[in-house]
Amino acid sequence: MIKYKFKRKEKDDFWDTLRSRVNEYFKDNELDKDANALMERKTIALFTLYLTPYFLLIFAGITNYWILMALWVVMGLGKAFIGTAVMHDSVHGAYYKNKNRNWLITWSATLIGVDKLIWKIQHNVIHHTYTNIEDTDEDILPRFFFRFSEHQPKKWFHRFQHIYAPVFYCVPMLEWLTTKDFAKAIEYRQRGFIKKGREFRIEFTKIIGRKLLYYIVFIIIPILMIDIPIGASIAMIIGSNAVAGIMLALIFQPAHVVPLTDFVKQEEEDMESCWASHQLYTTTNFGMYNPILTWLVGGLNFQIEHHLFPDVCHIHYPQLATIVQKTSKEYGLPYHSFPSFRAAVAGHFGHLKEMGRSTQKLQVQGA
């Protein structure tokens, strides 16, 4: 993987101006950038959504399949929303300023079956740095079945990808629970994100321990405690995680894989833009004026603000959006946004449909 170098300054120091204005906002309003009481109450509510069905499944003695499946579905939704609204902030270090307190919240990743170290490397380090850069940003890797941009090879079945995508979007959460964390740990060791030798052995052991904790609590105990055949319980667990998977895909994909955003095919090490403006070209918001959506998805409908200020708790994104919009307009930079979640999802699937049919190649930067 090429370690691309962004320009330090561009268009009269857009990033310096924006960062200064955001810092002034927090200072003038005497606010901290991390979680507040509202965020803590939200966290309690989301864990209640996730764990209440779990305890009903374990202790209520329910054997009706429809009720059991409904509880697993609610757990799947709770898992997705904890992932976006709690775990996501904590692994970015944006929940609490105090490292020890923030570390405790990062265990929310373990409770939903995702390893926090692997997530941090793939998401925080790679995706946030090299957003929508082909062959580097793992979030847009086609993985054979998809064609997310015109830079990627087109196969005959891609013309149907907008139809079969929801089925495949159910899979990532199941992959996280089984093979992904282990496979990525080995890959990231080879790529230098985890040091070889003692550090890798320690981290890999921790990954195994965290995964076993999840398996025991959320797979083995339910199978043993719910008085239905094992096969039925396993099917329901798979269904629950499929619900979480597709919800996460529908939240993350419309932020980057839509017609509004750029996909960069970069041959040279030096980028043509600075990092901050690159985020504006490759990221889009949606449903910015829908407070319920913002609450549920952890402010990830303000994906631009999140990419520019990942160390700020998402509870502040709606206020930062006004500053980012104003500054980007002043510097002639784009600010992409869909009016609603529905429009963003439609934009994503429309993009998949177009990519399944289009054969046009985009210009390669640095060529």
Structural account:
This protein folds into two domains: 5-34 and 259-355, no CATH class; 40-255, no CATH class. The protein starts with a strand and ends in a 12-residue tail after the last helix. 40% of the residues are buried. It is globular and about 60 Å long. 60% of the residues lie in helices and 4% in strands. Strands 1-2 form a two-stranded parallel ribbon. With 367 residues, it is mainly alpha-helical.
What labels would you give this structure?
4 strands; mainly alpha; two-stranded parallel sheet; 367 residues; 2 domains
Level of helix content?
Answer: 55-70%
Q: Helix and strand succession?
A: EHHHHHHHHHHEHEHHHEH
Strand order of the largest sheet: 1-2
Major sheet summary line:
2 strands, parallel
Structural class by SSE content:
mainly alpha
The domain count comes to: 2
How many DSSP E strands?
4
Instruction: Please state roughly what percent of the residues sit in beta strands, choosing from under 5%, 5-15%, 15-25%, 25-35%, 35-45% or over 45%.
Output: under 5%
Number of DSSP helical runs: 15
Q: How much is the average pLDDT?
A: 92
Query: Runs with pLDDT <50, length 5+?
Result: 361-367
How would you describe the oligomerization state of the chains in this entry?
Answer: single chain
Rg from Cα: 21 Å
Distance between the termini: 17 Å
- Give the CA-based shape: globular
